[in-house]
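User: My collaborator sent over this chain with a note saying "see what the structure looks like." That's all I know about it. Can you take a look?
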Amino acid sequence: MKRQLFIVVLFCLFGAIAVVHGQSGSAAQTADQLKLQLLELQAQEEGLRARAVELDEAIKPENIQRSLAGVGSTRPEELREARRKQLESEKRIVEAQLTSLAAAKVKLESAIATAEAEAYHQSAAPP
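Assistant: Without extra context I'll predict from the sequence alone. Here is the result:
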């Protein structure tokens, strides 16, 4: 909850910065938009990391057994194995998404640096 509030405050802050920089040129606006995208990406990354931790915990044999405690079956070992495979598959998907977000984050950070440099040059140029 506190993290979500922090993200909302940052969005508002960057929105205000965008208005101020909006007068100095499009490069500053672009940099601000990219920073907002980076914040959104970081929020997604945090959510995925939290899900990965949950999956790590759920994959433990005792937790799989607990999750299937109310399910009656003549072959409980097959149910446990199916659940383990399902959780491992989901974990691989989350890890792939995290890898993809990491690559996007690097690109965004590079684009932000470029846009900020361009904004600096625009602000330093004679009117």
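A starting point for your reply to your collaborator: Residues 70 and 82 are 16 Å apart (CA to CA).
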